[in-house]
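> example.struct
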């Protein structure tokens, strides 16, 4: 988690900035505050509210806000302030559609060239996760760890494209999915975890058989079911 700067927002700690710019720092702190629920999706805030909360000067903050608006996280209104993005059905549809477009090509590549050892490692992690949650109530920390594992599987697949632009776009779409779950106070349950892990295992089974077509078909089934689960939040 990013630490906030010094109490004076006009004088952020240079150690926090590292090799990036103050506008990068402002963007990172905004995202952290959003997922920490210190900023509420759908709320209106002012620049001064964000200066106080994020501990960055107003100039770099404005630069960061323009970037965040371009990325779709907020809308800047000239008179009423800054409106934070509130998830809706369109965001769910667009996010899953983009992820599926990118991951179709990636899963075929994964099925063709990923090592069997790597596939076995991922399968073992999934079986261990199923055993860990079966018949149990999940804590918030455990749910977050398992959600991270879920997203990590897909990022591993997309990384097989060896395309930084595709990976960046995919991570952006994933973060919107996280926002949907956050806004609906989503908590993973054991049955949902087990269904998700088993859908991943179906994909991996096809990959281990070196069958790109079957892997893509299993991926499409997984995304259809995952999107149905996400739509259920509305």
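> example.seq
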């Amino acid at each position: 988690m990013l630490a906030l700067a010094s109490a004076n927002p006009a004088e952020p700690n240079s150690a926090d900035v590292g090799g990036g710019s103050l506008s990068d720092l402002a963007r990172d702190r905004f995202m952290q505050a959003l997922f920490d629920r210190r900023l509420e999706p759908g709320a209106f805030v002012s620049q001064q509210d964000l200066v106080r909360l994020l501990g960055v000067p107003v100039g770099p903050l404005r630069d960061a806000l323009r970037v965040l608006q371009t990325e779709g996280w907020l809308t800047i209104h000239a008179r009423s302030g800054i409106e934070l993005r509130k998830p809706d059905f369109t965001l769910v549809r667009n996010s899953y559609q983009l992820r599926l477009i990118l991951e179709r090509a990636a899963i075929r590549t994964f099925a063709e060239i990923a090592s069997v050892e790597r596939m076995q490692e991922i399968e073992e992690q999934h079986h261990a996760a199923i055993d860990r949650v079966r018949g149990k109530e999940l804590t918030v920390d455990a749910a977050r760890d398992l959600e991270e594992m879920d997203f990590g599987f897909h990022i591993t697949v997309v990384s097989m494209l060896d395309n930084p632009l595709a990976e960046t776009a995919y991570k952006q779409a994933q973060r919107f999915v996280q926002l949907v779950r956050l806004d609906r106070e989503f908590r993973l349950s054991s049955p949902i975890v087990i269904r998700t892990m088993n859908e991943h295992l179906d994909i991996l089974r096809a990959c281990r058989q070196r069958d790109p077509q079957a892997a893509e078909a299993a991926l499409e089934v997984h995304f259809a079911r995952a999107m149905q689960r996400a739509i259920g939040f509305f």
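> remarks
Confidence is low (pLDDT under 50) at residues 1-19.
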